[in-house]
Amino acid sequence: MGVYILRRLLLMIPTLLGITFLVFMLIALSPGGIGASLNVGSGQMEQTSRAIKEAYLEDRYGLDAPASVQYVRWLGRISPIKLGKRDLLDPTGEYIRSPKEVKEPPLWEWYVTDLPIPEPTDPIEWDYDATEDSKSRVYRRQSNVYSQSRAKLITGRAQLDTELGKAIGELEIKNAFNSKGKVKHDVVDSNREQIESSPRIAEINRLGNDLIGYYQEAINERENLIAVFDAVPYPQAGVPVVPGLYLSKPDLGRSFSKSRPVSELIAEALPITILLNLIAIPIIYFIAIPSGMLAAVRSGGIFDRISGSMYIALWSFPIPLAGVLMIGYLASTNYFDFGVFPASGLHSAASEDYTYLPSQSATGWQPGYLLDMLFHIVLPVSCLVYGGFAVLSKQTRAAMLDNFNMDYVRTAKAKGVAYKDIVFRHVFRNSLLPLITMFVSIFPAMLAGSVVIEKIFTIPGMGQLTLNSIYLKDRELLLANTMMIAAVNLLALLLADILYSMADPRISYK
Amino acid sequence: MQNKFGLKDFVLMVLVAVVGVIAFMSMKQNDRLWAKTQDLISTVGTVEQQAAKLERNLQNTQASTDEMLSKADEIGAKVQNLDDLLSSGAFTVNTSNNANSNRNTGSQSTQSENTGRGSWARPGNVPIEWQPKLDFANSPYEMEGYKLGGEFTEIFEAQPSKLTPVLAEDVYGRRVDDQICETLAAFDPVTLEVSGVLAEAWQYDPNGYWLRVKLRDNINFSDGVEVTAEDVRWSFHDYINNPELETESLRSIMTSIEEVNVISEKVVEFIFNEADAYNLQSAMMFYILPKHFYSELTPAQINQSTALAMGSGPFKIANLDVDNQWAPGEDVVLVRNEQYWGPKPALASLRFKAITEDIARLAEFRNSTASMIRPSSPQFSKVSREQGWDNFAYSNNWINIRSGYSFIAWQCGPRNGKLTPFHDKRVRQAMTLIIDRQLIIDDIYEGIGNVAVGPNNPPSPAANPEIDPWPYDPERAVKLLEEAGWVDRDDDGILENERGDEFSFEFTRATGGQTIERLQKYLVDQCASVGIRCNPRIVDWSLYDQIMKNRDFDAITLGWSATAPESDPKQIWHSESIQNQGHNFIQWDAGQDVYIDKIKATLDYEERMNVFHQFHALVNEEQPYTFIRVSPWLRFINKDFQNVETYPKGLEQREFFYAP
After folding, report:
1. Lesser CB count within 10 Å: N end or C end of chain B?
2. B185-187 and B194-196 beta bridge pairing
3. What is the value of pTM for the model shown?
């Protein structure tokens, strides 16, 4: 069994990679590609400004790299085994990575024969009495200087590209833009003579020459920063294994649509979704299973027929419509006076001042934080619940009926076992098998959240988060969500298999 | 099997009961602590209020002492003068001498004003524009039934992802920040003129290369620290222009400011690298942030923060703890800044709550748990006609400077190397003539909104008041199409040009919404009625950027928003924006550059408006866009709140007061 589980777990890794890769590539290859949403807002910006903004964003999130490279980078971040220099960990818990590389300035061959190389700097050694604080100050100062010089390079490049783009447009050079609308520098280079005939050449040359200077400055400052980085101004992250390889916590990265750490976003959303489901699922089970049993015992009777048709009717009622109707009738005083359920959110405004339990205070009775929250989730939970009865109760009923016709039940009846004992001890126990495995399959659904319900009732859970990440093509958030949902799915499948073998001795994994 | 209640069961039950009781007691204990904390918070609040009051009193005394001292000085100087006169023996002064001395004292008094109030100014004749004291447009304190306190709950359609100023890019985050942070100057809500907020006066180079600003005395951030010139410089150079911070949206458009220099504690000077009519706005209208607060934080802390927003505005975020910030998903609550230096708002707090479903928004508004919502057009027209609604809520529908306009843009240049029929201005005019914009507004938008006339619409002063919208006149359209060579040559009901090509075009629109679908259907019908084939193409919104960049459309519909009374037309209309995928995505070039360049270079207001009007006339004649509708602001506001005025600038929540 142990070997089997281990094998399954190891098999999970390539499966997970496959799933995330597939999902990522689907999004990356869809029109617009990763990060398209970042540029939607720049509608009325001036060209150069827009180019600069895009350049900054591309630089920060590495959006100019091909999709496959972006995926591999992400893998590197989430992998617990890391290569290269160890990251540093600043006191706020932020990872500090070794400084980013500087890209070659485009068209540098036009202006210099050789690209400048960084001037080597002396390694930094801390004074004997250097405190943590003073070390971090040195790092922060140098980091800022490097960012400044890098920003100059980025803006310079964006300006050059804008100017080149204008020249290309005027000269009507073909195929000079790639699918994302960026200037292709190799095409520009092969049309050098034509560009040089443009009236814009003076400006292009000025910007191009400036760029070489900025490049020199940036690589020098990078060298300086590396010197500080190598002197370890902050504690190092992770555990070293062999030189150049160390273990460290996986980093889920930052969402670029919300510019916050993904782990933080998930930590906010997940408990809410789990709370809703933890309340909804027991309700489904406690109603569906007994009524399924009752329906099986009196199969074909009035209760069986009424409950069966009612559950099917509920199951076929669309959730969005139900949600909207609930809000319209039950959350608004417009139609019924009792319509006072909250229409959105998880807490009322006043609950911030409530105590946790209901209490009698000077201003009168107040329901308390706990009751307030329960009151708020009545409508969303009923939306989650009502469609779930049908499947479960029908499943119970069918399994029970199957078992009723078994030989051992007949034997039990023949030897005079009490009917109650037959139903509970024999039939029901044996019908539980499919129910256990069904329960396992609910976990992934809990994680994914119920998109529709969360949207209607404005509940900031996982469903909304996942939906937004797809809609905004937010690389980090999307990949993290996909990976989590996939991992939980795979684990649930494994758990189901294990439970099977435990519940049914006929099944074994040898 | 027997069901016997044994000792084991008993112990188990007792244990469970004990755990339950302990849990309950600890909750009780927690609640007691909670109540104590609440008490403490409210006490701190009162103490803070009193401290603020005392401080203000102290300042007032200080000011009156200063005044008395300066008066005493004046008297002293006059006595001195008298003494001088006496000692010089000038008893018999003739009239000319008298005039002379008068002039002398005159010049002396201006000099003393220069040293006293204007010593900060640049030497020369550049006039100083003194700003009046900051005040309400309609003060709640002068209204009948005015009360202090109350909470105003505004409903957002989506959750702002962060509130940290400048880093918060969505419209909701900015709306919150506008209550927390202040700028040097802002548009006056009524006159829409640039008027001083933190700035007491400024001097603006007539050639447009520098701007010197004097800050008001006694202005402070919400923690009581004074706002100084260094904060202004820091906000620009070390916050907005700090490449380690994710402020690039603002950084990339504020390129015309070369540098900000501190002249003295209360005086800053902006140096511009080019003279531009919009320099004044961009220099005066960014948030001034407290250096002492933000410079304590690392760039990563600021970048990843959700609500580290501190400023000098009338409201503030109560909790500015780095480790325990507001989380998107919770309501945003702003409390009154008790140390506010300007006219204090009457409301105790503002609450911003996101509700994504429009029915839920209306339901919460009906239940009075929401004070203001933004209804959709159908909601607005239906609900505001309900009986008794007017006693319950204000239904506001007005056009202000933030009202944008929607339009259909015609491809005036080539698409994939081929000219579309719309390169001919007569065709574009004909298209406008067959679209009955008033009908669209009446039928699709429930009669809410005005027909848009051009790139600027009333009440913007940049709109040409002499231009009326094009009429609905299909007959004239047919004639214009005929002139342009589009006639039905083979009697199949579809127009052809001389080469026999049928007139058909693709109409690009974004997915979503009944409104836009109905608009598309109407357009298709109208085109068919004159013999034009219109093929709808429905794309995802995120693709729009690419489609516009590649000019890959015949006709496309979208809307531009506005944020200021006049906006620089260069980005959208200048022919230079045709190149390199600029936002003149319709590739329209009809001599508009003359006007646009002139608008940017004209610093004089009247003259600039004049050029704007000429530009408007050209756009109107050429019809590169068919302007459809100016979308007004629609708001339902609960009548428990008073002093609700709609201004050309929008709404001023700080003037509301709660009097149920």
Report:
1. N
2. antiparallel
3. 0.83
